[in-house]
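Consortium newsletter contribution from the modelling node. Members have asked for a concrete example of what our holo predictions look like. Here is one, prepared for the 5-O-phosphono-beta-D-ribofuranose complex that several groups have been discussing at recent meetings.
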Amino acid sequence: MSHQVSIIMGSDSDLPIMKAAAEILGQLDISYHMTVVSAHRTPERMYAYANEARGNGTKVIIAGAGGAAHLPGMVASLSTLPVIGVPIKSSNSIDGWDSILSILQMPNGIPVATVALNGAKNAGLLAARILSCSDEDVAKKLMHYRETMKAEVLEKAKRVENK
Ligand code: RP5
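And here is the predicted structure:
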């Protein structure tokens, strides 16, 4: 079976951040494929990757990049799949705002769902939510994830109250 989510990033230096998307998708039993696709350094690869994504069964693309972060927007311009952008505070990023604004400020007609700076975990969870619209199994797993998180917070609250 082909993967449901594609995780791409501009460089392997983005991996320490982007692996959080893969981890949460793995926890939710959602199949993914993760690789490096650079908008600036491998434009032909980006073009081919984005154009082939829907045909190979991909349902959501998560794209992370830093600095002049054009990967998510360019992939969204080439594919009609939902694209979730992860701005990364990378070595060539001044302060993170350059990455955020490069991904966030898309023109009308080409949407990218931008998560927080370095927010790869939420990108994975958002991809799961998109899949859950047509996959009851994923919806149940998300419900369970949220209940577990709730229980953990209540446990922390108890610990803080008992200090
Ligand atoms: C961006 O440039 C990449 O997404 C990465 O965040 C940043 C730095 O890349 P490297 O110079 O570490 O390869 O395109």
